[in-house]
Amino acid sequence: MDVMSAPEARYVRDDAPEQPPRVTRSAAGIKVERNKQFIVPSSHDFDRQYAHVYFTRYNSFKKLIETAATNKWPSKHVVPKLLDIEKEKECVVFGVLYKDMPLKPNILDEYHARENYEAPPPERSKYNSDEDALVLEDMSGRIVLIGDALDVGTHVSGVVVAVLGKALPSGEFQIADVCYPRFPPQKRLPKIPPSYVCLVSGLNISKNDKARLSMQLLSDFIQGNIGSTADQELAASIVHVIVAGNLVWRLDDEHQDLPLYKKRTMIPESVGHMREVDLFLAQMGINVRVDLMPGPHDPSDAILPQQPMHPCMFPLARNVSSVKGETNPYETTVAGRTFLGTSGQGVDDIYRFSTEEDRLRILEQTLEWAQLFPTAPDTLGCFPYHMTDFSDPFVITSCPHVYFAGNQPSFATKLVTGPEGQQVRLVCVPSFSDTHTAVLLNLATLECEPIQFDAP
């Protein structure tokens, strides 16, 4: 796998001595195709058990993982069910991983602490420990996995795997090798002239005035109102903007200590923040198409997939036809390049429940596992998909050209090459409120670079 080092950030400042003539923007020949697979049907049903999510996932992966395992171990005996394993005989079995973690938050522990006036379990940045163990499950049973072929620390619940090994008299399964679903097929890239997609996330509009100035610089840059001639030519080649969640800061109760009769007459600060977002989107949408994804801080669904934010929250932007509300996760095709991404919840959750420190590596792992949110619904909320009505929409069935995660601590990128020559540009999009950095991706070459907006 080829690792592309992160380039030095380009800076755009608002103290240029003079403004050159604006450059005309052209998006001729750039076709955008939306994918609606993450839209939850209006007839959704929340009465079902979440166990069906794993059954649905297992069924969605069954043919993929069987094909991958047969190609990797053509002469090995395949056991269709865990209950059919014979002890001390080498075989291949399939299933869904469950990670047993003593430190993982448990609602029963929280309830017990509250009922007995005890301190609740402490929040942690990571919940892994030396006592963690992996269990393989299918629709017939489960078995504990042991062996160095499968690293307990870097794996999480919900990953579908095939394992080669044998059952021990103790009832455990000794792993000799492991197989993941192979990279899905990828469409060929048509040749196009240089043009760019801008990725930005984590605006987190709040009382941070410096972040507001940087955000206005971003808007002015995309509109071609600031910068040198070279900056304006670059801005004119931006054909698409993707806002990957967290438009406003966390929508907690802003006046929780005030009495109720005072709260009823107060306008929350978040209303003003949404108005700023609305103006920001409307300004950019006049010049370029803007796709708007919800994030964990935004007024949208608390479970995945998050649905598009309601247009009534954007009275200005909803009148601009080029501003589109999208789901999280999000998939679209721009000039023949498939973009697949999230607002970062999957990467953040895996980071908390694994020993992996590199968020770009976590993003790569989800591509290898062919799953956007493997930890849902164990530690990440999601819609209760049922195998009789749905397939698992979080399964990556087509290899994207660009795969991104928003709201990350810093910018990182990598070019991953698959076994059949697939090439995927991985991008960790940094939180704009913390780094004042957006990402420009060249559609012609799939190269990307950070661009920083410095407000003095």
UniProtKB/TrEMBL annotation:
Main localization, broad class: nucleus
All residue ranges annotated as the DNA polymerase alpha/delta/epsilon subunit B domain in the record: 197-413
Signal peptide location: none
Protein localization: Nucleus
DNA polymerase delta subunit OB-fold domain location: 49-178
Superkingdom of this protein's organism: Eukaryota
GO biological process terms, semicolon-separated: DNA strand elongation involved in DNA replication
UniProt region (Disordered), positions on chain: 1-22
Keyword Nucleus appears in the UniProt entry: yes
InterPro entries: DNA_pol_a/d/e_bsu, DNA_pol_D_N, DNA_pol_delta/II_ssu, PolD2_C
UniProt keyword annotations, A-Z: DNA replication, Nucleus
Gene Ontology MF annotations: DNA binding
Stretches of the chain forming a coiled coil according to its record: none
GO CC entries: delta DNA polymerase complex
Listed Pfam families: DNA_pol_D_N, DNA_pol_E_B
Sequence similarity: Belongs to the DNA polymerase delta/II small subunit family.
Protein's UniProt name: DNA polymerase delta small subunit
Organism annotation: Salpingoeca rosetta (strain ATCC 50818 / BSB-021)
